[in-house]
Amino acid sequence: MGTFVSWSRNKEINYITDNNKHLFYEGDQYVRSKFRAGVQLTRRDKIFYYHTLELKYNQNQIANIIASLNPNYFLDDKQCRNSLLQPIHLQITTLTTNLIH
Predict the structure, then answer these.
(1) For labeling, which of 26, 71, 90, 101 is most exposed (least CB within 10 Å)?
(2) In whole angstroms, what is the distance from residue 74 CA to residue 62 CA?
């Protein structure tokens, strides 16, 4: 079992791409914040069989100035995007041994 929590803020971000050039905004205040948290459970049935279940939460938020410079920053005219991700993985690992005499 594992957990993680992450939080970050930026005063400068790339808010749009114009003619293959990144346009940046830099200000005195924070213009983007990101929060991430999650938990992971792993079950090992046999020596080479793993089952993994992950539950992750992401929240991204931008300032008003970024939303006015690029209304499609999150592709839906919002200033905040929340997502709950629930990936399930089955990892099968095989080990082969070649004996050379």
Answers:
(1) 101
(2) 9
> Looking up tokens 């080990």, which residue turns up?
95
Determine the number of helices (DSSP H) and then strands (DSSP E) in the chain: 1, 7
**Do the bridges between strand 88-92 and strand 2-10 make them parallel or antiparallel, or are there none, so unpaired?**
unpaired
Q: Please state the pTM of the whole predicted model.
A: 0.70
Q: 3-class DSSP state for residue 35? A: strand
Q: In the chain, where are the structural domains located?
A: 2-92
What are the pLDDT digits (tens) for 40-85? Answer: 888 877 777 777 788 889 999 999 999 999 998 988 778 888 888 7
Residue 31 burial (C-beta neighbours within 10 Å; 0-12, 13-18, 19+): buried
Amino acid (one-letter) located at 45: D
